[in-house]
Specification:
alpha/beta, Quinone Oxidoreductase, Chain A, domain 1, 2 domains, nine-stranded mixed sheet, six-stranded parallel sheet, about 30% helix, globular, binds NADP nicotinamide-adenine-dinucleotide phosphate
């Protein structure tokens, strides 16, 4: 047994946090112990916490594993971990995996479907949760992995996957007949990656963002036009599909007022404003749904390869769009959490924490 730690947030007040210390669990037959090594923090992780109950994100990493009671939640993070001990054939100490991780020193998993690409955590408490979150990918069996791009993968992989699937769904539906695709929180990674994927494929791409983020968002060059939330009354009243990443009720109401029946589609994708928007929108985008469709159409390898190709195109460009800020240890993780929660992180900054 070794020393470990757990970071948690109060489920009813995401700004209240705690850090506990403990020891690593014993590894039984069929289990493996991962050491959480390097993770990222973006608005997406805050969204997991905002929807922790509604979408069951709190259930991935039960607080009891860190000796905490139910009023605490462990917000899921994405990043790399290392196998430190294993009682499962094919899962070896020293292997490095990418996946969904707790804000903690270690994670005990029950590897299943072990192959050259990695494994799935078959722990009972995760069985009913969306399966893409239960996969751990070995760096050695992953066409998208490059050692010199780890921080980009940490920050962007799940977001870019969403953007890639969202763009694919929009194209798959003939752009919903829209002349304009309008994205809110256009300065967010998920939005600009979707714009990157959709740019030049048909409709005009317009980004809506905060006044202070207009310049950054314009500088990316992946939107045809960037407009601040205050100026949305200047938008052309043409058939428009709204891809909402902000979740802001006032923006939705203003758009409905301005565009009327020219608002041909209204899709909730994210909620950077931390107000759930699913009920107010016409539909909710959830990447695993389009992913399942494309797995059937293209096969798992076909989807992986298309994703890897798109990722490599994006990775080349995005290095010029982001400044990775690397912290170290649980205290820096807590600080990054508070910064992202309160929207103080400039859009050009991406928080990565070495644990
Ligand atoms: N449906 C899905 O499957 C799926 C998958 C991945 C991500 N998402 C969602 O997409 C959204 C964007 O995630 P991300 O990780 O890409 O974000 P990010 O890059 O961290 O986004 C930063 C931007 O979000 C806005 N923002 C951040 N904090 C805010 C706050 N406290 N109040 C108001 N606005 C704030 C600002 O944009 P503006 O000034 O431009 O508004 C900011 O520049 C999240 O809600 C995430 O959950 C959904």
């Amino acid at each position: 047994m070794a020393a470990t730690w757990t970071f948690a947030v109060a489920r009813d007040d995401l700004a209240r946090t705690t850090l506990t210390e403990g020891t690593t669990p014993a590894v039984a037959d069929g289990e493996a112990l991962l050491r959480v090594d390097r993770v990222g923090l973006t608005a997406n992780n805050i969204t997991y916490a905002v929807l922790g109950d509604a979408m069951r994100y709190w259930e991935f990493f039960p607080p009891a594993a860190g000796g905490l009671e139910q009023q605490w939640g462990l917000p899921p993070l994405w990043g790399f971990a290392e196998v430190v001990e294993s009682q499962v054939p094919g899962v070896e100490a020293g292997q490095r995996v990418y996946g969904y991780l707790p804000p903690a020193g270690h994670l005990l998993v029950r590897p299943d479907r072990v192959d050259a690409t990695g494994f799935r955590d078959a722990s009972v408490h995760r069985a009913e949760l969306p399966s893409p979150y239960n996969a751990y990918r070995l760096t050695t069996g992953d066409p998208a992995y490059r050692a010199d791009q780890e921080d980009l993968l940490i920050l962007f992989r799940p977001l870019f996957f969403t953007s890639f699937m969202l763009a694919d769904q929009v194209v798959d539906n003939d752009f919903y007949g829209a002349q304009t695709l309008l994205l809110s929180s256009a300065s967010s990674k998920t939005a600009y990656a979707a714009a990157f994927e959709l740019h030049g494929r048909g409709p005009r791409l317009v980004g809506l963002t905060s006044p202070g983020n207009v310049e950054f968002t314009r500088s990316l060059g992946c939107y045809d036009e960037v407009v601040s939330y205050d100026d949305l009354g200047t938008l052309d009243a043409v058939p428009t599909a709204y891809l909402d990443l902000s979740g802001a009720p006032a923006t939705r109401a203003a758009l409905r007022g301005h565009l009327g029946d020219q608002l041909v589609r209204d899709v909730a994708v994210g909620l950077t404003n931390q107000i759930p928007n699913a009920a107010a929108a016409e539909e909710v985008f959830f990447a695993p749904v389009q992913m399942r469709k494309r797995r059937q159409d293209w096969g798992r390898d076909g989807l992986d390869q298309r994703f890897a190709d798109a990722w490599q195109r994006f990775a080349k460009v995005v290095t010029g769009w982001i400044d990775v800020r690397v912290g170290s240890g649980p205290a820096d993780l807590e600080q990054a959490w508070q910064e992202v929660l309160t929207g103080r992180t400039p859009p050009r900054v991406g928080h990565v924490v070495q644990l």
